[in-house]
Amino acid sequence: MMPMRYPINLAEHRKARHLSQAKLAEMIGVEQPTVQRWESGKRTPDLGQLGDLADALGIDPGALFKLPDRVPLGPRLYIKGEVGAGLWQEAYELPQDEWKEFTGRADVTASIDHRFGLRVVGESMNEIYPHGTIVECVSVFGPAEITPGKRVVVLRQRDDLEYEATVKELVEEAGRLWARPRSSNPTFTAFPLDENEPGIIETRIIAVVVSSVRPE
């Protein structure tokens, strides 16, 4: 029995070469409904027709039966807290028994110890991260590349020694780094990272966002 992967592969290779079913049928000497039935899995080409299909598509016949490459799964990571996207959110780590698991990116090389998730609260980044989005972060203590255009987690310490955090997009303007919102709400504005508001001791980037997940 012919593997049932071939109808999907046939359609994908045909479309990749911008061929209609009618044009492919003409190239191999069959009627258009025949190609339609092959792609729907209702009929199967014989060995000679498989060779003709491969020649017309410029592929090896085996490509019609090849399974898709498996997408590697990333590591198990944990959502360890919340980060504000709007008003600053008090920064604290949840108790370990409240951490929620999620799957991180497979191609990030940073140590697991430097990777974690945060739940976005607020709407100042809703063009990218709607409220409730989980952002995967790499700590700046790991190999995190902090460059303009990245989304970053910014931490600031108040003069009462408490900490607050927010997630923003890092931009550079006139030689200064700014934390910019990406929101449908125009009331949110960018702020410079080298200038503290009254009552703030220090403002710094602590992590770079490398991916995001939107729970259903």
Summarize it.
Helix content is 18%, strand content 31%. The protein is an alpha+beta fold.
Task: Characterise the protein shown here.
The chain is 18% helix and 31% strand. It is α+β, with helices and mostly antiparallel strands. It has two domains: 59 residues, lambda repressor-like DNA-binding domains (434 Repressor (Amino-terminal Domain), Orthogonal Bundle), CATH 1.10.260.40; 138 residues, Umud Fragment, subunit A, CATH 2.10.109. Strands 1, 2, 3, 4, 5, 6, 7, 8, 9 and 10 form a ten-stranded mixed β-sheet that branches. Strand 7 and strand 8 form a beta hairpin. Helix 2 crosses helix 3. It is elongated and about 80 Å long. It starts with 5 loop residues before the first helix and ends with a strand. The model has no long low-confidence stretch (mean pLDDT 87).
Supply the key terms:
216 residues, alpha+beta, 434 Repressor (Amino-terminal Domain), Umud Fragment, subunit A, ten-stranded mixed beta sheet, elongated
Q: Using the CA coordinates, give the radius of gyration.
A: 26 Å
* Poorly predicted runs of 5 or more residues: none
- Structural classification: alpha+beta
- Helicity level: 10-25%
The SSE order reads HHHHEEEEEEEEEE
Number of domains: 2
Class of the largest domain, according to the CATH hierarchy? Mainly Beta
Number of strands: 10
Mean pLDDT: 87
- CATH fold-level label of the largest domain: Umud Fragment, subunit A
**What is the straight-line distance between the termini?**
39 Å
CATH superfamily of the largest domain: Umud Fragment, subunit A
Just name the CATH architecture of the largest domain: Ribbon
Q: Strand-residue fraction?
A: 25-35%
What's the main sheet like?
Answer: 10 strands, mixed
How many H/I helices? 4
What gross morphology would you assign?
elongated
